[in-house]
Write the structure tokens for this entry.
Amino acid sequence: MSSIRQRKTDRGVPLALLQVASGEVQEGKSFREVAKSLDICHVTLYRFHKKRLRLESQGSHTSPRVGYWTPKKVFSTEQEMLLRDYLMEAAELYYGLSSKEVRKFAYELAKNYNCNFPQTWAEKEMAGADWLTTFLKRHPTLSIRRPQATSLSRATSFNRTNVKKFFDNLSAVLTKHEFVTQEIWNMDETGVTTVQNPGKIVARKGTKQVGSVTSAERGTLVTLACAVNALGNSIPPMMIFPRKKFHLFFTSNGPPGCIGTANGSGWMQEEDFLVFLKHFQSHTKSSQESKVLLILDNHSSHLSVEGINFCRSHGIILLSFPPHCSQKLQPLDRTVYGPLKRYINSRCDNWMKTHPGTTMTIYDLPGIVNSALPLAATPSNIQAGFACTGIWPFNRDIFNDIDFAPSQVTDRPPPEPSTTSSPLLAASSPVRPCVEPGTSSSATPFSPLSIRPHPKAGPRKQTTKGRKRRETAVLTDTPIKDQLEAEKKRSNAKKSKAKTKINFGQKTKPNKKQKMQASSDEDEAQYCIVCLESYSRSKEIWLQCCSCKAWAHKDCTDGSAFYTCHNCESD
């Protein structure tokens, strides 16, 4: 740890007072007389006056430095401000530097710009831990944080283009149908598992490992689908169980009015989404005369033609988010599902403590959700989710440059070679020349970007492999519906064609005559144990193993007359 000397006195003479006293001395008064009249130390006045005369004789118009300063400071104040802005911008791009990387970067800067740094920096090729500690204290806007893992798709897809398309579609829908607050809904799924993330407990200090009981090593997931509106209301949720067939007792302890379905995976499927839409319509009472807006993500189950046809016939307008943008645009993700997971973990901890030695099953989860959901899906949380995403009240300018900063790393042309900093950094602090403490200015501008530029990737390659890339759209509009129907037909045609090929290539069960013919052709069905080539397709000389009687090409062996295969040699 660094030894930071704490100042214990308030001694020190202001510069203006010393200048007045020095002027009186220059007029002919004595040092002691002036110092006594102004209540300052005569030695301090003598030293200041001597330095002032020396600077004036050298033709300098600057005043001598007074007060306390740090003589061993590596970087000047301006340089540290540039380094601070660089670190903040790197974190906003989701490519922040760790504490050790900051220390190495500081050494590279000091070495490149010929700053005075301790010898230990050169030995370890990084700045000391005490320098980082004092640097963070001098700049309280910085702190060491644990970042949240964010996928590359989420970091790059949330850009101005995708967000603008979504708000354009939302604005058009709100203007066309004149929806009010209670008619704007958001739907999303989340996973609930039987293995909770234990909360903090009180334990012995200094213990290296503190444990908490969970139900199993790996939990079973149940999907929870919820829908809320901008007024703060919600409908009973739907739960999807990983079972082949659904039974009513699955949700007997669940929230009042909740429903459930089942499939092999436990994830939302097209059939389950249609069940949810019928459940949603029965609670909202939507119709062609009283339409509602349902905003949801681009999951494949939400793009079913049957579900879209049901929504069109019952007055439900479907609007999809841009792909990989739910972390910013989904109201449920922003303010409801986070508290819900914490409450569920707490309830699971309590369940394990009240049921010692008992394994939690998926049939216990509805009761836990019943007690946790009302605490998370409160009207204030729901309304805050719609407000912070700009959906309601409608605000297309809810996001600023910092929110879109991670998308600048990819899908943008490489900048021209330049010594200036990036737009975000240049706007906050201009590049200043490198000025070391106590030395004259250098001609080389101090710029952290010239030593360590921010990460930058080229344009993303266009490919036809994988799933089709989606974008925000009004799914119930006729063009989008026709496009999804065409995609469904092509997909079904490919599946039927592949199934036909599989059926055509399947071998039928051989009869007795075929079995006899196969036994007579056993010699023709031999394979080389080295290269696995069939005997019937080979015209080379073959050798037989003396032990196991297996066959192999002569070229695949050592050519010995008494050949022993590698399997027998290892035995």
In short: The domain at 160-193+219-401 is CATH 3.30.420.10 (Nucleotidyltransferase; domain 5). The chain has four domains: 15-57, 71-159+414-458, 160-193+219-401, 522-570.
